[in-house]
TrEMBL record:
Protein location: Cell membrane
Segments passing through the bilayer: 6-31, 52-75
Name recorded for this polypeptide: ATP synthase subunit c
Listed GO CC annotations: plasma membrane; proton-transporting ATP synthase complex; proton-transporting two-sector ATPase complex, proton-transporting domain
Organism of this sequence: Neiella marina
Described function: F(1)F(0) ATP synthase produces ATP from ADP in the presence of a proton or sodium gradient. F-type ATPases consist of two structural domains, F(1) containing the extramembraneous catalytic core and F(0) containing the membrane proton channel, linked together by a central stalk and a peripheral stalk. During catalysis, ATP synthesis in the catalytic domain of F(1) is coupled via a rotary mechanism of the central stalk subunits to proton translocation. Key component of the F(0) channel; it plays a direct role in translocation across the membrane. A homomeric c-ring of between 10-14 subunits forms the central stalk rotor element with the F(1) delta and epsilon subunits.
Amino acid sequence: METVLGLKFIAVALLIGFGALGTGIGFGLLGGKFLESSARQPELAPQLQVRMFIVAGLLDAVTMIGVGIGLYMLFAL
């Protein structure tokens, strides 16, 4: 039983850790591409900024779902 409990802790840590890593990489790519595109066409910067924030919200939502699943696994199972 201790092995199952220990593996559950490792699984939750990996789930949350890889989610945070993916979000960090995603935000880095998203910000870089936004700066690149607004430097090329400055007149489109407000439209691009709105779209960037929508994608950033969706990107962050995926991580929050992963954290929720991890906490469910940790405390409910």
